[in-house]
Amino acid sequence: MRYKLDQGNAIIEFLIYVLVAATFTQIFTDFYRVAKSINEMHKVGNLITSTIAQNPKTIDKWSSDATKRLLWEKYDLSKIDYSVQCNPLGCSNNPESINLWISVRTSIMGIEIPISINKKAAVSRYLVYE
Amino acid sequence: MNLFQNRSESNSTGSAIVSFTLVAPLVIFVSLVLCQLIFLLITYANISLASERGARFIGMGIFTAEVISKTTLELEKYRFYRGEPKIEIEKVEIAEQKMIEIKISIPIQTFFGMKFDLTSTSHAL
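^ inputs. structure came back:
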């Protein structure tokens, strides 16, 4: 009887260890994916702000769904969303003129976590002084 | 009395060995996963930086062949995997804006035999 109890305890103990190992593996993998997503998000943000700074007329094109889908494929980001606008009076060489809000939904252990960043830029002054 | 004590000690030693035999593979597995992810993250950071630098070189007007050689040198810094990195440079149009795309991919084979390509893309205006 006692031998059977010990055996049962050992099996439960082993299953707990397996569960802990699986959880740690999942957490490490998720953190790797989150780190990758954040880096790609910064790259997309820099691309959008620098392009608008060079050519402010393209601002509407960047907000279209087709462009978002294209960036999603190229940068391997899932569920990317962003909004870009010029404040307060259109795109200018004001340091905070171009305002980009970009967000990516990632998940850690199946829990969805939205990560967002805000990037500000100005229109290149060479364009203004032209 | 002494006989019983010896038997109990040998029993506990035996169960400790069995526990260790069961748990050791799990610990090794988790450690390998952790090492693998660290290597992957360093490789990814390396190719990401290399692609961004490549895009900057293109933006500066440097010739494609020179961009490829400079980017290859960057990639040699932290090389944990045997596969040859592939650098592709092409013209693309995003949001009606003509750009040059630089895409670096490295074939990866993990400790567990999984094969996939780790890629990073950057754009230059």
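Residues 2-124 of chain B form one domain. The two ends of chain B are 86 Å apart (CA to CA).
thumbs up if we can close this ticket
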